Amino acid sequence: GVALLVPLLLRSGRGPSIMCKSKKSISSLSEDSEEKGPPAKKAKKDAKKDAKKDAIERKNENPRIVKDDTSQVLKLLTMNVAGLRAVLDPEKKKLKNFVEIIRAENADIIFLNEHKLKTEDVDTAIERLHELIPEYVSCHFSCSTSKKGYSGVAVLSKICLADKVSYGFQGNIFPDEGRALTIDLGSIALLGLYVPNSGQKLERLNARVETWDRALTRYCQSINKPLLILGDLNVAHRPQDIHNMYLRSNFNDMCLEPLSIHADDLESQYTGLTALKKQAGLTSLERASFSQLLQEANLIDAFVHFHPQASGAFTYFSQRAVQNRGLNRGLRLDYVLASNTLLDHTSNFPRLLDAFILDKDPAFSDHVPCGCLIELPPPLS
């Protein structure tokens, strides 16, 4: 196993910020303004003011755990960078934000999703990363070879991983797209994952839910040790993970409904929101398939486990509307999934201790990082 001497954990008192919400839509606000006919500048100001009332409230999240000094703990992050070359460009603000988050979090292992690097660009990127964050001595990349400048996963680690990394998994129907990377730490396996998007016209939907998801399930079942999955899983699982659902009059009731593995059971959630049924990552087929993965592979959603009452917690904000992030209108597409056995805190090791979403830090991508804390077995004396 891998032993790392880092501190014991205590609860911090830092809580999430609060925003207010309203059931009035942006489109209705625009129509009301036009009917009243105010001056253009005042109309713009009023629309901006009213839009803030439509923000989704971030609430009911438990405080994060912070470190003390007596336990074996690893902090893990996953970050969708939406193109690493752009993030590492010294002329862009993304670089500053990216490095500041990494330094502030001081994670032991970081998974990168959607780096979009070609194989021939990897060495240059690693050199640049070593200049910026030299403590991450081990860098491993998996690149798309079927389509250049597309997808890709990577891992940055303070621990030398050497022969501990493997790529892909059996049954992966997109083996040349660089979507999976597994690390064997002895007592636990870590899977960095970038799940295929079903496509703007859902052209990959059936392949995603019928073949990819089922092959991933079998791979998870084949790993004979506790497993953590970190990455962009390209699905918004629960009603709480889709900002549009918050305006439903029966939103609270929907949140109490069991998560079904049958797509038909989810159809009522789309009443008045039929456009969502045609959006990749939001379809009833993908959401039900995700429930099936959790059930059959004995996995839990770590963030939901530690923050069961949290709402308004998103990891992706579409850039088609620039106000989305400021108004907290997003989706939760990035996850930490964990084997059920990692929740046993009586005697078994390793143990899952916390999970979190970092949506208050400056942006470097249309996604925000998320992560977890894991306690490893004590070192052998």
Structure report:
The chain is α+β, with helices and mostly antiparallel strands and 381 residues long. 25% of the residues lie in helices and 19% in strands. It has nine helices and 14 strands. The protein has helices spanning 26-36, 40-53, 84-87, 93-105, 122-132, 205-222, 251-256, 284-296, 302-306; strands at 9-11, 65-67, 73-80, 109-113, 138-142, 153-157, 165-167, 180-184, 189-194, 227-232, 299-301, 334-339, 351-357, 370-375. The protein has a six-stranded mixed sheet. Strand 8 (180-184) and strand 9 (189-194) form a beta hairpin. Helix 1 (26-36) packs antiparallel against helix 2 (40-53). It is globular, with a radius of gyration of 21 Å. The protein starts with 8 loop residues before the first strand and ends in a 6-residue tail after the last strand. Residues 1-37 have low confidence and may be disordered.
